[in-house]
Amino acid sequence: MRKIILLGLFIILLIIPIVLSQPPLQVFIGDTKGLEIRSTLFPAIRVNNNFEFAFHVFNKSDGFPMTNETTTCYFHLFNNTGDHVTIISNKDIEFERGLDFVVSVTAGNFSETGDYNYLFQCNTTIVGGFLSYFFKVTPTGQDITSSQGLVSIGLIMSIIFLAFMFCYYGHKFSEIKDLFPIALFFMFISLFLGVYVLHMGYIFTRDILYPLAGEGAQFKMYLGIMWGLMAVAFVSMLFLIIKTLKEALKKRDLEIHGEDYDPKTKTYK
Question: H or E element: which one contains 159?
Fold first, then answer.
């Protein structure tokens, strides 16, 4: 039990660096002259989904909004490996509500999770400017913060520990005749927690660990350790539960048929 607890703490220490991600960065170029570009800042979008980016473009010297009649814009998208996956030219950028430059990006450009970056560049015949922004593509469309990641890790480890405690004391109580109903109850709680922690592990991997770690060797190492630990815990709990139930059936047969009865052969000695 002590070795398992130490292993859990070791895994937490390993995973902490990958959940401490940097926040996105918005950059504006220009001094008192040029174009200033504003857009809604979103931390993440859902993988394999279409997405619309809306931009407002202003003349920096007087704050006057620019239109597609006086301003030419281009949208560049870079994927999680840094590849330049798409360029959307001015003719494909919609101008809506007299203010919004709207860029529609198809789902195929967001086919993989990870860190993405766009560059929206605009210019008139005299001045220009651009906006660069980093965001994440995740399975859920939500950006998981470091605190959420650590809480999730701690929750899973706590449930594993709690399931072991119920299983351990359930096995101990099964040796005491008067406490057998409690032992059986503890075993079922342990089994329920074991199934629940497997489900939590899947959710954790899909929504937190996978988006934060990526698909490299580091991700595979963390994923293998976490699932390996949960598999060992689950199999161990099943073994103790089955062993406890067998012992309970054996004791019941001895109480019914007497001490000379052999439960294995179903005969008397």
Answer: helix 146-173
pLDDT tens track, the chain, 269 positions: 455 444 454 444 444 444 444 444 444 444 578 899 999 888 889 889 999 999 999 998 888 899 999 899 999 999 988 899 999 998 899 999 888 999 999 999 998 888 899 999 999 988 999 999 999 888 778 776 656 666 777 777 788 788 878 877 877 777 777 777 787 788 788 878 877 877 777 777 666 665 555 545 655 666 667 667 767 767 777 777 777 777 767 766 666 666 666 666 666 66
Domain boundaries, the chain: 2-15+145-268, 24-138
H helix or E strand, kind and range, residue 87: strand 84-88
Alpha helices, DSSP H, located in 174-216: 180-204, 210-213
Nearest by Cα to 177 from 259, 263, 255, 264:
255
Q: What CA–CA distance (Å, rounded) separates 143 from 22?
A: 11
d(CA 246, CA 158): 28
Which residues on neighbouring strands pair with residue 75, listed in sequence order? 88, 120
- CA 49 to chain CA centroid, Å, is 18
The CATH superfamily of 24-138 is Macroglobulin (MG2) domain (2.60.40.1930)
Specify the DSSP element, H or E, that contains 73. Answer: strand 72-78
Tokens of 249: 């059936």
